[in-house]
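Quick note —
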Amino acid sequence: MSVGWHMKLVDIESLQTIWEINEIFDGGNGSVATAAFQYYEAEIGAGFRKPDPELVLASPRLFGQYTLHSVFSTLPLR
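Predicted structure written out below.
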């Protein structure tokens, strides 16, 4: 599964770009899969049931959740 995001944060007064990302997350890439598993274990897998961590690569909702977490973690601090 692959998900891509292109986002931009612009200051409305100066029209300067504050933050921009154009990223593709490919679940077939080993480093992306490892990061997704780690995210699942730390953030999602803390619930009652412990389904297979590979579910994060098979579920569009869970994989999208991981990718957005990864993207938004790059936002600059205020």
